[in-house]
Amino acid sequence: MQCIYRHVLKKIKTSKRTITTSVPEIRIYEVGPRDGLQNETKFVPTEVKVELIHKLASSGLKNIESASFVSPKWIKQMSDGVHVMTNIKKIPDVNYPVLVPNLKGYEIAKKCNVEEIAIFPAGSEAFSQKNLNCSVKEGLDRFRAVAEQAVKDGVRVRGYVSCVVGCPYEGPISPTAIAKVTEEVLSMGCYEVSLGDTIGVGTAGSVRRLMKEVLQVAKPENLALHFHDTYGQGLSNLLAGLEFGIKTVDSSVSGLGGCPYARGASGNLATEDLVYFLYGLGVNTNVDLVKLVEAGRYISNFLAKPTESKVNRALGDRFSNHLDIVKIASCKT
Ligand SMILES: CC(C)(COP(=O)([O-])OP(=O)([O-])OC[C@H]1O[C@@H](n2cnc3c(N)ncnc32)[C@H](O)[C@@H]1OP(=O)([O-])[O-])[C@@H](O)C(=O)NCCC(=O)NCCSC(=O)C[C@@](C)(O)CC(=O)[O-]
């Protein structure tokens, strides 16, 4: 089968010479510290959030959505965003984006010297009302003002579109509606739009239908996939999406996650499961699975709940060497 993933040229040193080879690569956008924790009822202290972010960065993840600057009246769990962002010991080549709902949140984020923000309009009218207290159109206008200011300030902007397959209040959402919102979000200057199956109702079939429509208005390199794993379809949905040439995938360590305004939705696709899956496809992730598993256990232990990652559970205490796990994933025993 022809490899469908983006390839990067890498210089690899052998004992005798340096060779240039082509390695497929997928960009992982970790959302655990934000999407993963925002729905937790027990307040996670700032130092635990910061330690989680440090552990994720040391596993090799390069994009870690670290906080959100939403109204603390709406999401109390994220109310310490300023302290989180000012206490992270940043690694130079790691991106630490934050979620921003309006200009007020943007101004606070800016004071924390963030280099990237994410805006998050919805594809569904009812969800927009519940999540943002405004219509889709009002949300888009509000986010356009934020994006324009950020672009002016040289801050990168990423966009989410929520409820790309289904809405907890309205039911199925048409791919045409999602394509329309995606096009508008891209026109605001976002370098990428992440398509969020907020309640995890998608299947490989509905994801294919969505991709066909959205790719009428966007290039695959400007799209990302954001799956919640409510019905256990996260990885098959992802495979369906990757077949369209998408190169960025969102996931959450330990499968944490959920939105308080999307009751019943489970966590995101677990990053440990994603990394294992990608190694199996021969896709380079540059992530150390042992360190990632440790990060997942750190936060699950703190929350006193079992990990939602099947890979994390399956590995138990058997493996301390990243390469051994990669061999299993690649079936190269
Ligand atoms: C958009 C609003 C603010 C409108 O909320 P509102 O109540 O209509 O706004 P408001 O302007 O009337 O403000 C109400 C109060 O909040 C304050 N306020 C207002 N904004 C801010 C701010 N940025 N930072 C700090 N404070 C703020 C504001 O100052 C005021 O304080 P008061 O005067 O009463 O003392 C609110 O609805 C909100 O914060 N919503 C965010 C909800 C949220 O975070 N949801 C989860 C993230 S979305 C998600 O998870 C989906 C995603 C992205 O992961 C993709 C997927 O999974 O598919």
Strand order of the largest sheet: 3-12-11-10-7-6-5-4
Fourth-level CATH superfamily = Aldolase class I
Instruction: Please give the radius of gyration in angstroms.
Output: 19 Å
| Beta-strand content estimate | 15-25%
Shape: globular
Q: How many strands, which pairing sense, and closed or not: the largest β-sheet?
A: 8 strands, parallel
CATH architecture: Alpha-Beta Barrel
Q: How many domains comprise the coordinates?
A: 1
What class would the helix/strand composition place it in?
Answer: alpha/beta
Terminal CA distance reads 22 Å
Protein model, in words:
This protein has 333 residues and is of the alpha/beta class. It has 13 helices and twelve strands. The protein has helices at residues 32-36, 46-58, 81-87, 103-111, 125-132, 136-153, 175-187, 204-214, 234-242, 271-280, 289-303, 310-315, 322-329, and strands at 7-13, 18-24, 27-30, 67-68, 98-99, 116-119, 156-161, 166-167, 171-172, 192-197, 223-227, 248-251. Helix 10 runs antiparallel to helix 11. The chain binds 3-hydroxy-3-methylglutaryl-coenzyme A. Residues 35, 38, 68-75, 101-102, 104-105, 108, 120, 131-133, 160, 162, 196, 198, 226, 259, 261 line the site of 3-hydroxy-3-methylglutaryl-coenzyme A. Residues 26-293 form the Pyruvate carboxyltransferase domain.
